[in-house]
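Researcher: Structure prediction, please.
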Amino acid sequence: STWYASASYRYNQLSPYILYGETKTKRTDITDFDGKSGSSFVAGLRYDIRYNLSVNVEWQSFKSFGGQRGSFVETPQDSDANMYTVMFSFVF
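Model: Predicted structure follows.
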């Protein structure tokens, strides 16, 4: 199961935002394990260039727990990762 929560605040053309999410996994090899297998935190800033065009800059931190994959495709050797993104969003 997975859950997430986000918050954003718009001030003129700028919108800072944060997002946090967790993934829970039930391990079959340990019957009493039912805990957090991964988490993700995002901090970003959106700038509206026009009403239908924006640019976002964000940092995202991934973590995995208990030898689980978490948000990763395969079980990672290092349980932490950071991703930095610059993106344009266009609505037509």
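Model: The chain has a mean pLDDT of 85.
Researcher: Thanks, that helps.
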